[in-house]
Amino acid sequence: MIPSLGETDGVLRECLATRTCLAIFEVNSENEYYVERFIGSVRHECLDHVIVLNASRLRAILKSYVAYYMDSRLHLALGKDSPQSRPVSPPVGRVIATPQLGGLHHRYDRRAA
Q1: Which of 39, 67, 96, 97 has its CA 20 to 30 A from that of 112?
Q2: What pairs with residue 19 in β-bridges?
């Protein structure tokens, strides 16, 4: 059975509340805006592009998305860096694409020649 939008939202909120998928936000009324913004990012960047068949698969996808969000996704508010800062690649060398989220997104790095 494919989860409905309400069920998907419930699993997202459960993951946020129990911190099984995300340890960034503490869910309370003060930062509800950020949680809603994150849920929107998950939907637009991930869930709109995959077919979720059950809640356990949704949890696995969310866990993978959070790893991508923290380690690879660029954030304008952080000066085009990720929350877990990474070293700057050398300006020369071969560009290597590393698939993430099952190939939905990629991380590009340069490797010295």
Answers
A1: 67
A2: none
d(CA 83, CA 50): 25
Q: Is 106 helix (H, G, I), strand (E, B) or coil?
A: strand
Q: What is the dihedral of CA 51, 16, 78, 95, to 10 degrees?
A: -40
3-state secondary structure 52-69: CCCHHHHHHHHHHHHHHH
Can you tell me the distance from the alpha carbon of 41 to that of 49, in angstroms, rounded to the nearest whole number? 12
Indicate whether 19 pLDDT > 50.
no
C-beta separation of 112 from 92 below 8 A: yes
Place of tokens 């309400």: 6
pLDDT at 10 over 80: no
Task: Give the mean model confidence (pLDDT) for residues 77-103.
Answer: 83
Distances (CA, A) of 22 to 1, 45, 90, 101, 108: 25, 16, 31, 16, 24
